[in-house]
Amino acid sequence: MQEFDHIQSLWQSHSVEVKISSDEMLAQAKKEVNGIRTRSLFNILGMVLSFAAITGLIIFFQFNSWTTLAGLSIIVASVAVYTLILYKDYRIIAQNDFTEHPNAFLSRLKIYQLNKFTIYNKLYWFYAIALSIGFILYFYEMLDNLNIWAQVGIIAFTIFWMTLCATILRKAYMKREKERLDLLIEKFERISDQFKEQQ
Predict the structure, then answer these.
(1) Which residues 6+ apart lie within 8 Å of 177 measured at CB?
(2) CA 20 to 30 Å from 116, out of 47, 65, 144, 193?
(3) CA 120, CA 125: separation in Å to the nearest integer?
(4) How confident is the prediction for the chain on average, in pLDDT?
(5) 159 burial class (0-12, 13-18, 19+ CB within 10 angstroms)?
(6) Is the pLDDT of residue 147 over 90?
(7) Domain limits at 180?
(8) The pLDDT value given to residue 19
(9) What is the percent of the chain where pLDDT is above 90?
């Protein structure tokens, strides 16, 4: 037991300083920034495809109730607004060349992180409520054509899915995204410090 304590104390007292060159750190940061940009583009593309699909429903299908059109219109408007917000955030991170201006990119990265936090904490609820109202109005006519068990199943699944997205999935995504952005910001702060030391 004493040997274990001795080894443990040696291990704790021994600290290894890992030196990473600014070029290696910049290469890692570039890879991570490109990953964020790619994910943002895929999110925007998914929202644009959703917008096009729902707009196609409005244009090409005949509905008997005004509630269906109202519901689909609310969904389309929500998706359009959310897509514009995502595009605005994408432009924040895509505008700057971080290899030329790491400090400017660092400040933009912090703005991007703040915007992400706002989107997934505050604006998300407006989006979720608008989608819920849109689906309720849309299902008003659609559910009339189905038997009672299909109606209950669709309503239960919709409530379950919205609850799952609003709680577990949203929180897990926010935590993962915050960790990624915090790590990236830390790397850019180190890169900026190394550039200052070299000057």
Answers:
(1) 116, 120
(2) 193
(3) 8
(4) 79
(5) exposed
(6) no
(7) 37-198
(8) 55
(9) 17
The answer to whether 30 touches 98, Cβ cutoff 8 Å, is yes
- Can you tell me the mean pLDDT for 130-156? 85
Q: Record the tokens describing residue 64, joined without a space.
A: 């008997």
2 or 34: which carries more pLDDT confidence? 34
**Taking each helix axis from N to C terminus, what angle separates 102-118 and 66-94, rounded to the nearest 10 degrees?**
160
3-state SS of the chain is CHHHHHHHHHHHHCCCCCCCCHHHHHHHHHHHHHHHHHHHHHHHHHHHHHHHHHHHHHHHCCCCCHHHHHHHHHHHHHHHHHHHHHHHHHHHHHCCCCCCCHHHHHHHHHHHHHHHHHHHHHHHHHHHHHHHHHHHHHHHHHHHHCCHHHHHHHHHHHHHHHHHHHHHHHHHHHHHHHHHHHHHHHHHHHHHHHHHHHC
13 located within any domain: no
In a domain, 8, yes or no: no
- What's the pLDDT tens digit per position in 7-43? 555 455 544 444 556 667 667 777 887 888 888 899 9
In a domain, 9, yes or no: no
Predicted confidence (pLDDT) per residue in 115-124, tens digit: 888 777 778 8
Counted domains in the chain = 1
Identity of the residue numbered 79: V
